[in-house]
């Protein structure tokens, strides 16, 4: 009798491994959550619009910050200048982004979306938000807002220094439960 090997797509959400200490590891929980959000992104935006998550994010940032520079994008996304240049080149080749010379500093190029990209972003964002609401309907509107707020706080810590040697080696205790926000 042959056994079928399990691949990630074959494992249902009800199949669980013992996670023990991983339950307290924020990075693990975020990685598990990203499996869901990545699937939603790919179904709602990635495949229909042929966009990668980084491309969508760049377009969204350029849309809300027209005239910004590639250096600003690189810093916001924590990537290198050559890496951001490669992504901008790809978006420009697809006629989604325009590089415009700065009027005040001719060495600087400013980025803006094309009309094609503006239309695409309106559609893509609407589809993405609807897909997330549907996939995450286990959360109330208030819980979703609270989760977004907490994730923004986590993201704001990305530049904070980390003193690994000062980290305690004893097992972490579960934090005291906070009261959930009222359901909307």
UniProtKB/TrEMBL annotation:
User: By its UniProt entry, which SMART domains does this protein fall under?
Assistant: HTH_MARR
This protein's superkingdom? Bacteria
Q: Where is the HTH marR-type domain?
A: 23-156
Q: Name one Pfam family in it.
A: MarR
Cross-referenced InterPro entries: HTH_MarR-typ (IPR000835), MarR/SlyA-like (IPR039422), WH-like_DNA-bd_sf (IPR036388), WH_DNA-bd_sf (IPR036390)
UniProt name for this protein: MarR family transcriptional regulator
- State the organism named in the record: Aquincola tertiaricarbonis
């Amino acid at each position: 009798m042959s056994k079928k090997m399990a691949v990630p797509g074959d494992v249902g959400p009800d199949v669980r491994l013992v996670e023990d200490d991983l339950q307290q590891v924020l990075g693990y929980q975020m990685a598990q959550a990203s499996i869901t959000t990545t699937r939603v992104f790919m179904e709602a935006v990635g495949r229909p619009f042929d966009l990668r998550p980084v491309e969508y994010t760049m377009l969204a940032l350029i849309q809300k910050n027209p005239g910004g520079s590639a250096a600003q994008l690189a810093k916001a996304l924590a990537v290198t200048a050559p890496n951001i240049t490669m992504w901008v080149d790809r978006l420009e080749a697809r006629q989604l982004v325009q590089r415009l010379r700065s009027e005040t500093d001719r060495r600087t190029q400013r980025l803006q979306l094309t009309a094609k990209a503006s239309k695409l972003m309106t559609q893509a964002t609407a589809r993405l938000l609807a897909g997330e609401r549907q996939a995450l309907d286990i959360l109330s509107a208030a819980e979703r807002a609270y989760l977004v707020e907490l994730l923004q706080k986590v993201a704001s810590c990305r530049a904070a220094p980390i003193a690994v040697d000062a980290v305690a080696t004893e097992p972490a205790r579960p934090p005291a439960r906070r009261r959930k926000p009222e359901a909307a």
